[in-house]
Write a structure and sequence with these properties.
The protein has 523 residues and is an alpha/beta fold. Among the domains are: 5-184, Rossmann fold (3-Layer(aba) Sandwich); 410-518, ANL, C-terminal domain (GMP Synthetase, Chain A, domain 3, 2-Layer Sandwich), CATH 3.30.300. The chain is 31% helix and 25% strand. It contains 15 helices and 26 strands. Strands 2-1-11-10-12-13-14-15-16 form a 9-stranded mixed β-sheet, with helices on both faces. Strand 8 and strand 9 (179-184) form a beta hairpin. Helix 2 crosses helix 3. The longest helix has 17 residues, at 31-47. Adenosine monophosphate binds at residues 171-172, 216, 287-290, 309, 311-314, 333, 391, 393, 405, 408, 414, 419.
């Protein structure tokens, strides 16, 4: 029995080395070729001194190099640290130093972004660069291909054990700083088994994957499912509605597409605009953010297919899914995957609630992570004595056993499937000289689901919305910048001094738009 997803893939690759597994732009990799590169990468890392349990950050776009470095790091016994490619100085400095990453695999732009962080990133010793950097770097670096050539593609290295740490996924920054969710090899394996079983994923499947690999949806659902089922993936650098629609129309070998609701909204628009219709696929999956029943019906009408919506988290991977066979119910996230549990509890008493009543969703099972990296306090707060994990999502289970997500207990904005923690944006904006006080919140957005809005008490002279958006963009990922800024005289606070964001939200959503609203120029 395999003890890791990696072992499952390497075993499959030995059994059927000629099977195509990965297509990217003009390149095709068979399972045997990919396994050879993974093994070479792993053995080269070990030769260069990487020890078991040491962290290797991937700050990389979708590419075969990402897949090789991801699996190769695990085969070398290392721990992968996933980093969103949009992250800038504030996020990079925090994540790479918190994780104590010793190596970072990145491109030329990534290396340039990292360079000013030489001092705070004291654990970082060397870089692997997939493109030649433009100038000198403050760390020694080795080219990706050179590293592969150093390694032995036939080395027989020890397999990671199930209890060993595989990945740190940074998430949930309620304090403004994200925490590393510790995912063990056995978590990855248990969840991918549950997902592939629930969705009847087989070696005959071919997935069109445009989601970023640095997040759970693309990586631990899309890539893991492909590697463990023996199917193949058509991996794209990024999502673009016209290209996806034409691939779905022309390529009869594709059987599945996974996306966030923003992608489906754009695909429907593109289909209506062009009159093009995709061929029916075996499976369309949506997740990472709520899929509105309206969009579910729009896809059904335009594509003739009922999307399967599922619910997951970085800490737990996939939690619940609508049925593959049986009714896919819009506005719900279905039931727990096989071998996993979910329940709804009262937020105060923590007692389980009857069906139909709203509380916090908790989950338990072999897919649930081992805790937050070096944060025993945060870990203890997130679990109860019986091992139930508090998701921070509010919802209910209906009489037929379908879970519905109705809100969030924690402050979180989900914009186009990317998470934005208001506190992190507030902390950055508060350092702007024109800002006396600031509150950040999410408001509905037709494309991204929610948009980031900043309410600012200005100092004189008041800053422009554009100046504040640019200020954020220089320091944080661009998707976190406010798309709307409102200047106010004071923030509403309760008796304890806490900003009453619900009042701000109501005020901002009233049709008579206040005169002080400013919009940064759209990108
Ligand atoms: C890009 N921009 C955004 C977003 N994406 N702004 C707000 N929200 C966004 N999601 C900004 C960029 O910063 C840029 O601004 C401008 O929009 C255009 O950038 P571009 O790269 O062209 O964006 P895009 O191609 O239009 O991207 C939209 C997208 C993307 C394809 C929907 O956001 C995306 O890939 N989302 C998927 C995220 C995902 O995989 N989430 C799963 C997390 P400027 O020009 O000013 O720089 S895992 C998870 O949630 C759990 C586990 C689960 O259940 O799956
Ligand atoms: P992340 O921290 O990036 O892993 O995001 C996880 C969060 O995304 C969950 O806690 C939910 O709030 C949200 N989420 C994921 N899938 C869905 C879904 N299908 N419907 C609503 N929210 C979702």
């Amino acid at each position: 029995m395999a003890t890791s997803l990696l072992e499952l893939f390497l075993t499959r690759a030995r059994q059927a080395p000629e099977r195509p597994v990965l297509d990217f732009e003009q390149q095709r990799f068979t399972a045997g070729q990919l396994a050879g590169h993974v093994t070479a990468f792993a053995s080269a890392l070990q030769r260069r001194g990487l020890k078991s349990g040491e962290r290797v950050a991937l700050f990389l776009e979708n590419s075969p190099a990402f897949v090789i470095a991801y699996l190769g790091t695990q085969y070398a016994g290392g721990v992968v640290v996933l980093v969103n490619t949009q992250y800038r100085q504030v996020e990079l400095g925090h994540i790479l130093s918190d994780a104590g990453a010793r190596v970072c695999v990145t491109g030329a732009a990534g290396a340039e972004e990292l360079a000013p962080l030489k001092a705070p990133l004291s654990a970082l010793e060397w870089l692997v660069t997939v493109e030649s950097p433009d100038g000198p770097l403050p760390w020694p670096d080795v080219g990706f291909d050179t590293l592969l050539a150093e390694g032995d593609a036939h080395a027989a290295l020890p397999m990671p054990r199930g209890e060993q740490l595989a990945v740190l996924g940074y998430t949930s920054g309620t304090t403004g700083r994200s925490k590393g969710a510790m995912l063990l090899h056995r978590n990855l394996l248990a969840n991918v088994r549950a997902v592939t079983e629930a969705w009847r994923w087989t070696e005959n499947d071919r997935l069109l994957l445009t989601l970023p690999l640095f997040h759970t949806h693309g990586l631990m659902v899309g890539l893991h499912g492909t590697l463990s089922s023996g199917g193949s993936v058509d991996l794209r650098r990024r999502f673009a509605a016209p290209e996806v629609l034409s691939a779905l129309q022309e390529d009869a070998s594709l059987t599945m597409f996974f996306g966030v609701p923003t992608m489906y909204g754009r695909l429907v628009e593109e289909a209506r605009r062009t009159g093009l219709r995709p061929r029916p696929l075996r499976l369309l999956v949506s997740g990472s953010a709520p899929l509105s029943p309206q969009l579910f019906h729009d896809v059904a009408e335009t594509f003739g297919q009922r999307i399967l919506e599922r619910y997951g988290m970085t800490e737990t991977l996939m939690n619940t899914t609508n049925p593959y066979e049986g009714e896919r119910r819009p506005g719900t996230v279905g039931m727990p995957y096989p071998g996993q549990e979910a329940r709804v509890v009262d937020v105060r008493t923590r007692q389980p609630l009857p069906d139909g009543e709203t509380g916090e969703i908790e989950v338990r099972g072999p897919h649930v992570f081992a805790g937050y990296w070096q944060r025993p306090d945060a870990t203890a707060e997130s679990f109860d004595a019986e091992g139930w994990f508090r998701t921070g999502d509010l919802g209910l289970r209906d009489g037929d056993g379908y879970f519905h997500i109705t809100g969030r207990a924690r402050e979180l904005i989900i914009s186009g499937g990317f998470n934005v923690y208001p506190r992190e944006v507030e902390e950055v904006l508060a350092t702007h000289p024109g800002v006396a006080e600031v509150a950040v919140l999410g408001l509905p957005d037709p494309d991204f689901g929610e948009q980031v809005v900043a309410v600012v008490v200005p100092r004189s002279p008041p800053p422009s919305a554009q100046a504040l958006a640019d200020f954020c963009k220089d320091r944080l990922a661009s998707f976190k910048k406010p798309r709307r800024v409102e200047l106010v005289d004071a923030l509403p606070r309760n008796a304890l001094g806490k900003v009453q964001k619900h009042l701000l939200r109501e005020h901002l959503q009233t049709p008579a738009a206040p005169s002080s609203v400013q919009k940064p120029t759209e990108p």
